[in-house]
Amino acid sequence: MRGLRAMCVCLAVAMPLAHAATPVLPGPQFPSFESAAALDTFCDQGLQRAKARLNVLERHPADGRWLAAYDILIAQLEDWAGPVYLLSNVHPDKALRDAAETCELRWQDFSSSLGQNETLFKAVSHLRELDPIDALFAKTLLEEFEDAGVSLPPVQRRRAKEINDRITALGQEFDKNIRDANVLLAFTTDELRGVPEAQWRNAKRDDQGRVLLGIDAPTYTAVMQNADEAKTRERMWHAKTSEGGPANLKLLGEIGALRKEYASLFGAASYADFTLRRRMARSARAAQAFLDDVLNAVTGRERQELEDMRAAKARDLRLPLEQSTLQRWDAAYYQEKLQRERYAVDQEAFRKHFPPQESLAFVMRVIEKMLGVKYVRVPGVKLWHPDTQAYAVHDARSGAPIAALYVDLFPREGKYNHAAVWSFRNGSLRLKRAPQAALVVNIDRNGLTLDDLETLLHEFGHAVHNSLSATRHVSQAGTSVLRDFVEAPSQMLEPWIYDPRVLAVMQEVCATCEPVPDALLAKAEAAKHQGKGVLYGRQWLYAAFDLALHGPEATEPMALWARMEGATTLGHVPGSMFPAGFSHVATNYGAGYYGYLWSEVVAADLRTAFAKDRLDPAVGLRYRRTILANGSQFKPDELVRRFLSRNSNPHAFFDELQRGAN
Ligand SMILES: [Zn+2]
Questions:
Q1: How many Å lie between the centroid of ligand 1 and the Cα of residue 444?
Q2: Of 203, 267, 324, 590, which is the most exposed, with the fewest CB atoms less than 10 Å away?
Q3: How far is ligand 1, taken at its centre, from the CA of residue 50, in Å?
Q4: What is the pLDDT of residue 8?
Q5: What is the band of 326 on the pLDDT scale with cuts at 50, 70, 90?
Q6: β pairing state of 211-213 and 389-395
Q7: 9 C-alpha to center of ligand 1: Å?
Q8: What's the CA-to-centroid distance between 483 and ligand 1, angstroms?
């Protein structure tokens, strides 16, 4: 599961051009804090400045320069709050992460009050004679004020703010329960039979000499795909599906009820309806209808795949087929086994081809070729952890440094345990403000699987959306696009790794890395198609659960999940509590998880332009200028139309969904 956190929102100093010999990072230096107290002070200063800037803005006449003045406030908020939102997820010192979370709540209080500021609302309502970019900015802003409750009667308005602030605090607690749980499971080496030794050789041991394993993504996947002992997989699966625990189920229930109440303040029947009317989908009904089309397209395929796995289990355990039952913790294992049998594809075997640093260099080179940029490593930059790296992104044609990118590759205790990009500073042409983002993943130091490489490329798609934004305003930059569009630029890149011409780029950055044979890559792609039924069936379940949880009926999350998962082929396993770890739904993807599938339609359509050559620099440059550079200053449909010279349609998506079907 990949996720993206869009951040709320500086006064930028124009950057001098770098001298070739001494690379500099565009934008200000990332703040460094020696203690929680230092972060508290930074937080105080930021809030003071924001209030002062807000006072200036409140006195600003509603004229042609008002939106620019508002945008300066947003830039300032970003510069003071953006790094804090990132640090609460990545700083190695728990005291500092805690201080960052406290600071986030203070910013939340500021933002929810800002959303209800009547003076600003009136000013933006009076703006006239705007060009299309400013007109869309003003329209979006008016909607944001409306949705924050500015027009509600005083009692309801206070309640709206209370709810917003409370949901943020509850979401924070939800994530903390996952991040700081530090779950460790003890296994004998015999129990780990089948799991590559490199995955556990250096792990801590308990006093009986058993290996202690966490449930971070690389460890979890390695055990679930490879452990021959069903009991080992079962324990690991239960630990992962209990992540967050009953405390998080309670939090999610409270969040769902609060969102429903919030929507009712505006007369909406459900939170999904309230939220989706502003999105590409426009309504919960349209989102659900789309999800059902996806389900119909994959149901037969999913059934067949699960049946194949059940048969593989029967062969493996020498059982008659009728006595073989596929359990949830069997799925990844037998899928992997089938892929090895049918396609001779072993994800573990890819690690030797893809060392971590070289894989990062590979992804950067692919982007360089496609999009006309250059990544320059900037040494000696002090960041939150010694493993973290800093890069300047240059425009290849002009040589100008245009953005900064920080990269945090490896898992560690207390770190966000999925893969995400924090676009903590957005660019603006008007302010000559350079974007900055942080790419946070958790990859194995022994190297990447092909799946990991796909994840890295996906996340890079978010990073370039931030880096290559060239909008007038900060507020419309990069990943500030609609939530059901934001994944498209990342998803578009995913199949690139199955293209031998793209993968050959690896040898440009690593002469000693053994090339992946073309035949193996073709088999890996065929194997990928083989798991599509199960994959999309699962994505449908996540998205449909999220929509139902935010639907018109009051629902208790665990009962809803048990019912919905119970209706699937593998059923619900009593005692498991997947929703307790479903952070997307508890935080800012609430009623928005369908967006991962929705934006795949756009991604597949965008990809058609690269059908002849995925590294075509001319198509890449057009893509950069139309889609990436424009952020949200035009609507997504309009951006796609400009890039493809036609209206978007779902044909490519549904064609791809059928590819490789039996
Ligand atoms: Zn993503």
A1: 19
A2: 267
A3: 30
A4: 28
A5: very high
A6: unpaired
A7: 19
A8: 11
| φ/ψ (deg, to 5) at 50 | -65, -45
Distance CA 1, CA 542 (A): 11
Mean pLDDT of 101-130: 96
From the CA of 440, how far away is ligand 1's center (Å)? 12
- pLDDT at residue 348 greater than cutoff 60: yes
Six token digits for residue 652: 């490519």
Spell out the residues 6+ positions from residue 44 whose beta carbon is closer than 8 angstroms to its own: none
Q: Give yes or no for a contact between 272 and 280, defined as CB atoms under 8 angstroms apart.
A: no
**Angstrom distance (rounded) from CA 554 to CA 548:** 9
Distance 131 CA to ligand 1 centre (A): 32
Instruction: Indicate if the pLDDT at residue 531 is higher than 90.
Output: no
Stated pTM of the model? 0.91
- Give the alpha-carbon dihedral of 179, 184, 190, 194, to 10 degrees: 0
Distance from the CA of 3 to the center of ligand 1, in angstroms? 5
Distance 176 CA to ligand 1 centre (A): 21
- Expressed in angstroms and rounded, the spacing between residue 384 Cα and the centre of ligand 1 is 23
3-state SS record for 566-603: HCCCCCCCCCCCHHHHCHHHHCCCCCCCCHHHHHHHHH
CA 282 – CA 452 distance, rounded (Å): 33
Residues in the chain: 662
In the structure encoding, which two tokens stand for residue 63, read together? 């004229």
Q: How far is the CA of 420 from the centre of ligand 1 (A)?
A: 7
Question: Would the CA dihedral through 585, 587, 592, 597 be positive or negative?
Answer: negative
662 — pLDDT class (breaks 50, 70, 90): low
Distance 88 CA to ligand 1 centre (A): 20
Q: For a pLDDT cut of 70, what percent of the chain falls above it?
A: 97
Give distance in angstroms: CA of 592 to centre of ligand 1. 13
How far the first Cα of the chain sits from its last, in Å, is: 26
Largest CA distance in the chain: 80
Per-residue model confidence as pLDDT tens digits over 4-41: 332 222 222 333 344 456 788 999 999 999 999 999 99
Torsion angle of the four alpha carbons 104, 108, 109, 110, in this order, in degrees rounded to the nearest 10: 100
Using an 8 Å Cβ cutoff, are 661 and 303 in contact? no
Q: Tell me, what's the pLDDT at 21? A: 61
Looking at residue 612, its pLDDT comes to 96
